[in-house]
């Protein structure tokens, strides 16, 4: 292990500092500043800021030419109230690091510490602290930033902690590991009326009441079935918050999931057809829009092989676990520029689930995750 006990203590302190100050997608300015403040004394060859929003990339270079390896973490937190008694609990009302991105970014910070002491012998290491993962916009924005062309990798790697697996156990496989997903907003428009005369208006209530179970019925199967689909109604609103007004407008939000990107268009078409049928039946105007679009994550076999070798050499137990998982990850966009792979690091079988209000990243994973990534670096770059 390239980290000392003092390093681990300092890294845990840093992780908890990030935890105290969560910022949601697109707002990670202070989180990025904290990352840069820690990186600067470590003297990377280059630090890129404002990448695709508030993203940060630190570049460590070897003495000779060679491959470029990119390791990616996430900066953003969630708009969820944290329920915790920890001394380092969130200080920002309504926001919390409840997915472990504070821990993932600390793992990359540990890599920076190690690389500052022993740079790679060849090639380059890019540590990408990516913004806006939770809403699916960050990876696309980073790739669209003209400066990304200067750090385009030959391989890209990432990890995500995963409650429900034994602490420190790894799930890894080639092929699809995270599903494609997107949010669909369905808006019905009719006509408001006085609540004493609802017949003079046009309410979307019946259309919404019928549509929600119909959308849910689009769900089929489970991964790894290629025909897997899942439709989850996540939010709905109807009319004004008033007792004197019969509603004229309403929205249904539904998250659509498929195992792979190629299946998403069909699921969207089926959901749109249901919405159109409901609107027509009740004489309502209809509009739809899509948000939080995630491509599926597909682990390249050659990238998986590098991770598997590192896991074996670090004596970390691993198997395919329950992959692919139903959740989405915008790391999937990195496969457009390089062979990429993500592994899943167990947070404990009884650990609170991701996005639970009492979730907290296990600090014991910092050294494990950093050790795996550093082993990949030494194997490929020296």
What's the short story on this structure?
The protein is an alpha/beta fold and 382 residues long.
Per-chain topology:
Elements: H1 5-20, H2 29-39, E1 46-51, E2 55-61, E3 64-74, H3 101-117, E4 122-130, H4 138-144, E5 155-162, E6 170-171, E7 175-178, E8 180-189, E9 193-194, H5 205-216, E10 229-238, E11 245-246, E12 249-258, H6 264-281, E13 285-294, E14 297-299, H7 301-313, E15 318-319, E16 340-346, H8 365-381
Parallel strand pairs: 3-4, 3-5, 5-16, 6-15
Antiparallel strand pairs: 1-2, 2-4, 6-16, 7-14, 8-12, 8-13, 9-11, 10-12
Helix pairs in contact: 1-3, 3-8, 5-6, 7-8
Describe this structure in words.
Strands 1-2-4-3-5-16-6-15 form an eight-stranded mixed sheet, with helices on both faces. It has helices at 5-20, 29-39, 101-117, 138-144, 205-216, 264-281, 301-313, 365-381; strands at residues 46-51, 55-61, 64-74, 122-130, 155-162, 170-171, 175-178, 180-189, 193-194, 229-238, 245-246, 249-258, 285-294, 297-299, 318-319, 340-346. Strand 3 (64-74), helix 3 (101-117) and strand 4 (122-130) form a beta-alpha-beta unit. Helix content is 29%, strand content 27%. With 382 residues, it is of the alpha/beta class.
